Amino acid sequence: MKEKLEILLLQAVLKAYPNSISSLQEEVPADSKHGDFASNVAMVLTKALKKNPREIAQTIKDNIDLSDGMIGSVVIEGPGFLNFKLTQGFWIRALKIIDEQKKMFGVCQAYKGKKAMVEFVSANPTGPLHIGHGRNAVVGDTIARLLSAVGYEVTREYYVNDGGIQISTLGRSVYARYLQKQGVEVPFPEDGYQGDYIADIAAELLPRSAEFERMPRDQIIETFGRYAGDKILGEILEDLRRVGVQFDSIFQESSLYKQDKVRQTIDELKAKNLVYEQEGALWLRSTSFGDDKDRVLIKSDGSYTYLSPDIAYHRDKFKRGFDLLVNVWGADHAGYGPRLKAALLGLGYPADHLHLVFIQMVSLIREGETVSMSTRRATYETLEDVVKAVGKDVARYFFMMRSYQAQLEFDMELAKKETSENPVYYIQYAHARICSIFEKALEEQKIAVPAYKDEWSALLGLPEETEMAQLLLEYPESILKAASEITPHRVAHYALELARAFQSYYDKARSDDRYRVVGHDKKTTQAKLFFLSCVRQVLQNAMHVLGIEAPEKM
Question: What pTM was estimated for this model as a whole?
């Protein structure tokens, strides 16, 4: 639609001023009173043509072809803006594309041939996922769905931090509970992981006690840590499946050491003179690439810092041929981005192809009170518990209904409500209500949902129908913008806006027969059924991107 308008406008500009031009840009005015689209082309041409922009705008306006019925009016506003109002009939006729493309409406190939990786969740396998991990999971999965919708070949990856001290701490925690279950009085590690799940894992290892008697303590702790980590990771992945999230790849930090990729990365940094030694440690010259200070890669005791394997991991990502890397991290990692990007720039990789998403905190609200949570003390609401209480669809929508840059309050009481107060219920109910209208039309008038016909545009003249048609046709651009800017919450907002527009339209039928769908003459009913089929289709498409179901009955 915008493309067609651009062509008409470009033709008018070239007809009026053959030797001008210029790329054209249209935008949607903030106030709909100013039209459906606006262009500042007249002001852009002022310098070259040495004329008043309003005079230029008038000449362009006089040369615009209005014969195809798309443009209803062109008004010159302010210093020379051209404001376009499209005809009501055009908006309705344009819905034909939804009928033709159906579930592919909103899907495009803007990034065809490009590969993207979305790395998200990547929680340490040291305990169950909590509600904050849930937000990370749903945001990451929705970003992946959006990128797929605009043409990227997408890989979802989970990075397992199994090479650091967390697994050792997990092993010591399980070992302490293991000994206690055998009647041995030992203190629990001060930095250990609390929670019944630690004791449960220890109980699983008791039948193997004879095997462990022959092992040195360090080997026992390593064995317990690996066993517990693998078990917890399996449970994490199962929890994620319950909320509709699955991964294409599981990447273990330990593999970077086994395949010598950390050392190789350090050697490459040395070869490029990007490191130096000071006080027995090896430092990265990260300030040369925009970081606020240089960073330690290898400590004076010879051990790697967290940064070293992270650089190696992202070097590996680029070597796998991805054009776009999206990392979904907690807000506490916000200061970590510059040092990682500095290293990648030094290694010659396009660091601007790495997009970092920082997820703000989630507060769980229960009966009006904020629930206190601590991962180490195991005082938190698990993702599994939340999904069991409210369901996958509600959990996903609630995690998505605010920008990830804003803190989120997850109100359990609101999430459980099956009323219009609950936004996901409201959206799904709008879809189910449209389905029930289709059933009623078939039962009472024996009229099924028809395919598009040009004649429908003359029968759909209500202002709300035109406004809803405009909203429906904005969907592809909304998806492209949400994907390009990595702003997945836009889709949640769009779905709710469309559901509200439909519900308002539906409610007016109680007092105004013009808004009724069933009960008119056959052609009018068919036109309105077609119109609602477009609303239903776009709701379905948006819900698919959000990963929530589109029920036909509720």
Answer: 0.90
